[in-house]
Write a structure and sequence with these properties.
The protein is mainly β. It contains one helix and 13 strands. Helices cover 5% and strands 36% of the residues. The strands form three sheets. An eight-stranded mixed β-sheet has the order 8-9-10-11-6-5-12-13. It is globular and about 40 Å long.
């Protein structure tokens, strides 16, 4: 999604989303820092799917209304159980399935834990492939071991 323009001025994109029951609502502003897929066992179990899809924004670009509960850093709605966000000191990792509008413009640029990807899923040919997390032993994620 390109930034909206009005009278020649570029306006920041705002995306909204929330949980299944509507108790948790959020807004993220601007473009995400990165978009990815994770095939690790934790993401499979917490998402109830074969992988999780997420987009990461600066924490300052994220605003939330409603109460979030958390388990191991994963924020979810205590009423309906929807996993919504992973919050870190400086980042908000939004589960893209919780966005109100289909995130067709948020293409993943990397995949994590690819050895655990289901055999019937193919890698994204344009995306970096990582055997584990985007950081390994303190390395920058761009320097992490690629598959």
């Amino acid at each position: 999604m390109a930034p909206a323009t009005m009278n020649g001025k570029v306006e920041k994109i705002e995306r909204t989303g929330g949980c299944l029951c509507g108790s948790v609502r959020y807004v993220v502003t601007g473009a995400p820092l990165r978009v990815g897929l994770c095939h690790c066992q934790d993401c499979k179990r917490t998402s109830g799917s074969t992988y999780s899809a997420f987009a990461v924004w600066p924490r300052s670009a994220y605003q939330c209304k409603g109460e979030l509960a958390a388990f191991n850093g994963r924020g979810f709605c205590p009423a309906c159980g929807s996993r919504v966000v992973n919050l870190r000191d400086d980042e908000a990792e939004i589960m893209t399935g919780t966005l109100d509008d289909a995130p067709n413009d948020l293409l993943p640029t990397y995949e994590l834990w690819t050895p655990r990807r289901e055999a019937w899923l193919h890698n994204l040919p344009w995306a970096d492939q990582f055997a584990g997390d985007r950081t390994e032993e303190g390395q920058n994620w761009r320097e992490a071991r690629r598959v």
